[in-house]
Amino acid sequence: MKFKNIFKNKSNMTTENTEIDQEIDDVTLENNANGEQIIIEELSVEEQLAQDLAKEKDKFLRLFAEFENYKKRTSKERMDLFKTANQEVLLSMLPVLDDFDRALIEINKSDDELLAKGVELIYDKLKSTLVSKGLEQVEVRAGDAFNADYAEAITQIPAPSDKLKGKIVDVLEKGYKLGDKIIRYPKVVIGN
Questions:
Q1: Which DSSP string corresponds to 148-171?
Q2: Does domain 136-192 have CATH number 2.30.22.10?
Q3: Mind listing the pLDDT tens digit for each residue in 2-42?
Q4: From which residue to which does the signal peptide run (predicted)?
Q5: What is the distance between the alpha carbons of residues 159 and 161, in angstroms, rounded to a whole number?
Q6: Is 0.70 topped by the overall pTM?
Q7: How would you classify the pairing of strands 4-7 and 37-41?
Q8: 151 exposed, middle or buried (CB, 10 Å; 0-12, 13-18, 19+)?
Q9: Is 99 helix (H, G, I), strand (E, B) or coil?
């Protein structure tokens, strides 16, 4: 710790200075830029080493905290990468799911129950595989309030009833999300 005493008036430095010099052991007088004399306490070797140790300890703690933050940040980024690593593959499979949906609608119109049952089994297997990889359907139905954060409006049509004004009239294409991230927004028609 430094002890500073500034004497601005040089005429007062007669007997007072000699008394102070005798009272304080490890003290030196220095001139600052203005020509004033400053009394500075010199630190002992132990005190200097203690200060240096404290500075190094502080540096170490800051570096350690910075490294811990780096580890947490990279770990989080890595987990996010693992969660969305399948995104491109799943996006390329979405048109296949859409085709299955259309095929099931058309096959159910026919009288061939075995064909409908076979296609439905394949569709369910594909869908369960994609769900196991983290794919989820975004739930949007006709009559729900339109929210631009969860759906993409393709067009607006006159609402068939007053209850459907500003709401979803029809869902043209299903939307899907991977974890919490929407990878394809549902395409909807809204009433005005």
A1: TTT-EEEEEE--SSGGGBTBEEEE
A2: yes
A3: 444 444 444 444 444 444 444 444 445 555 566 666 555 56
A4: none
A5: 5
A6: no
A7: antiparallel
A8: buried
A9: helix
- Sequence letter at residue 150: Y
Q: Domains of the chain: which residue ranges?
A: 4-41, 46-85, 87-133, 136-192
What does pLDDT average to over the chain? 82
The amino acid present at 95, given as its one-letter code, is P
Which residue, chain included where needed, has tokens 């200097």?
48
**Tens of pLDDT along 141-174?**
998 999 989 999 999 999 888 888 889 999 999 9
Task: Enter the tokens of residue 107.
Answer: 């096959």
What is residue 119's three-state secondary structure?
Answer: helix
